[in-house]
């Protein structure tokens, strides 16, 4: 049965609340919860940070007239958990509060727990509906679902290119390409992903800091490929200001803030890197180039989203950017004098 307009409105509100936890709940998903009574919201909450109370707990705590819970309708963006983790099961809480109905956006992707929270609720007579705004919920938690279902982080590729398709000057000379607003957006994107990766030559020529300076939010885990440990130790990536992982073929002991992860030369690079990140529960990685790394991930289909910032000016020559064409183009929008093209893997 299609969800009513009211159900969709409440679930949209719950998804908006869930979004407020962005960057703080991983490796947990973003979850929001809205509790209504006779068409009126009586409590709201979201999962604010990893290890903290779940959305349902916060929403129940926000209800100032607890007797209304008895006949309430609860909207929650992810199936209430049925097992003891860092907190007691949310399904038990809803049962204890004797809520009347529960409306769910997405099921728990873990096959060992999927459906169990719902079953627990139904077993005591609570009416449960599922799948309301399911696609929106999957999009919101795309990093979480990708890690759970594909055992690899969600991969966002990002680059800036000139109007004639170059992303660096001749001989890898870094040149300013995007404008002020795009730079702020990139810092926001950095704060939204758990890790950030660059290739050897980008690290060498651009000497990036890969932190969040022009936005408020957590710094990502820095990742760099340096097979032969050729990068100068004086570069920003090794300043110990932020955890950094170096993927290499050579052995080297860790130093403050820098960990060296040995990879096998017998196996392709990126499947090993993504596997290592999944083992660490890293949900997402922003890849900031350069073109060799980007092209390799594109060719292997190891990406989910690409954000291309196209500047209005031409360079006339240099290092060409990867070409995506129109396949997978999802949206485009202006950002100052630049245009951002967002692709999703077709
Ligand atoms: N405009 C932008 O958005 C942007 C962003 C980033 C960078 N850039 C520019 O891009 C230029 C650097 O790009 P680049 O393509 O030369 O270098 P890069 O992608 O930064 O690094 C390339 C290196 O990474 C390793 N690598 C990448 N993919 C690999 C794979 N599949 N298997 C094994 N090794 C792999 C290789 O290391 P080995 O050589 O050790 O084998 C390769 O040489 C710089 O000029 C920088 O300014 C522009």
From TrEMBL:
Zn(2+) binds at residues 54, 81, 90. One of its GO terms (molecular function) is 5-amino-6-(5-phosphoribosylamino)uracil reductase activity. GO terms for biological process: riboflavin biosynthetic process. It comes from the Bacteria. The keyword Zinc applies. Its EC number is 3.5.4.26, 1.1.1.193. The active site is at residue 56. Binds 1 zinc ion. Substrate binds at residues 190, 206, 210, 213, 288. Pathway: Cofactor biosynthesis; riboflavin biosynthesis; 5-amino-6-(D-ribitylamino)uracil from GTP: step 2/4; Cofactor biosynthesis; riboflavin biosynthesis; 5-amino-6-(D-ribitylamino)uracil from GTP: step 3/4. It catalyses: 2,5-diamino-6-hydroxy-4-(5-phosphoribosylamino)-pyrimidine + H2O + H(+) = 5-amino-6-(5-phospho-D-ribosylamino)uracil + NH4(+); 5-amino-6-(5-phospho-D-ribitylamino)uracil + NADP(+) = 5-amino-6-(5-phospho-D-ribosylamino)uracil + NADPH + H(+). SUPFAM superfamilies: Cytidine deaminase-like, Dihydrofolate reductase-like. Keywords: Hydrolase, Metal-binding, Multifunctional enzyme, NADP, Oxidoreductase, Riboflavin biosynthesis, Zinc. NADP(+) binds at residues 160, 202, 290-296. Gene3D superfamilies: Cytidine Deaminase, domain 2, Dihydrofolate Reductase, subunit A. Its cofactor is Zn(2+). Residues 5-129 form the CMP/dCMP-type deaminase domain. In the C-terminal section; belongs to the HTP reductase family. Converts 2,5-diamino-6-(ribosylamino)-4(3h)-pyrimidinone 5'-phosphate into 5-amino-6-(ribosylamino)-2,4(1h,3h)-pyrimidinedione 5'-phosphate. This is Riboflavin biosynthesis protein RibD. It comes from Hymenobacter rigui.
């Amino acid at each position: 049965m299609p969800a009513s307009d009211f159900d969709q409105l409440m679930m949209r509100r719950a998804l908006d609340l869930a979004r407020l936890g962005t960057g703080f709940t991983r490796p947990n998903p973003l979850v929001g919860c809205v509790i209504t009574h006779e068409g009126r919201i009586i409590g709201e909450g979201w999962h604010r940070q990893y290890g903290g109370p779940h959305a349902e707990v916060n929403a129940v705590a926000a209800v100032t007239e607890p007797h209304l819970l008895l006949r309430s309708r609860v909207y929650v963006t992810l199936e209430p958990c049925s097992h003891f983790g860092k907190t007691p099961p949310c399904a038990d809480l809803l049962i204890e509060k004797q809520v009347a109905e529960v409306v769910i956006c997405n099921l728990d992707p873990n096959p060992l727990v999927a459906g169990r929270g719902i079953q627990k609720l139904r077993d005591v007579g609570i009416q449960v509906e599922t799948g309301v705004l399911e696609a929106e919920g999957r999009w919101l938690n795309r990093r979480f679902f990708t890690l759970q279902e594909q055992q690899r982080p969600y991969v966002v590729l990002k680059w800036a290119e000139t109007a004639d398709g170059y992303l660096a000057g001749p001989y890898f000379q870094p040149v300013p390409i995007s404008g002020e607003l795009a730079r702020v957006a990139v810092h926001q994107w950095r704060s939204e992903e758990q890790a950030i990766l660059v290739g050897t030559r980008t690290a060498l020529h651009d000497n990036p800091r890969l932190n969040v300076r022009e936005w408020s939010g957590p710094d990502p885990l820095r990742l760099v490929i340096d097979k032969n440990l050729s990068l100068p130790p004086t570069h920003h990536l090794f300043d110990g200001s932020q955890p950094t992982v170096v993927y290499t073929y050579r052995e080297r002991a860790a130093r403050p803030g820098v960990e060296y992860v040995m990879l096998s030369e017998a196996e392709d690079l990126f499947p090993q890197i993504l596997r290592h990140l999944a083992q660490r529960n890293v949900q997402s990685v922003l890849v900031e180039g350069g073109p060799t790394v980007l092209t390799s991930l594109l060719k292997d289909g190891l990406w989910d989203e690409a954000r291309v910032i196209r500047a209005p000016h031409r360079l006339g020559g240099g290092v060409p950017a990867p070409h995506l064409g129109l396949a997978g183009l999802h949206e485009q929008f202006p950002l100052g004098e630049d245009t951002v093209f967002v692709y999703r893997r077709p």
